[in-house]
Write a structure and sequence with these properties.
The protein is mainly α and 76 residues long. It is built from 3 helices and no strands. The longest helix has 25 residues.
């Protein structure tokens, strides 16, 4: 296992392939990775719980915006 593969794990996409779903999956994995880093920093005492919450809330907002822009999950 390379250092990059260890630090930036990436799971394969298993759903029905569409470019937008694939892109959203990549965004979702990046969100999960960033939340994990933020939680680790908070657990280690590098971030306060309030700062960690604010960062995760900002990441969640970014994910919601990406979902709306890609129109993923809409039943149109």
């Amino acid at each position: 296992m390379t250092k990059t593969a260890f630090l930036y794990p990436y799971a394969r996409y298993h759903g029905e392939f569409t470019p937008t779903a694939f892109l959203f999956n990549a965004n979702l994995q990046e969100f999960a990775y960033q939340v994990g880093i933020t939680c680790s920093l908070q657990t280690g005492g590098k971030l306060s719980p309030t700062e960690a919450f604010q960062q995760i809330e900002a990441l969640w907002h970014q994910l919601q915006v990406a979902k709306e822009q890609l129109e993923v999950g809409d039943r149109r």
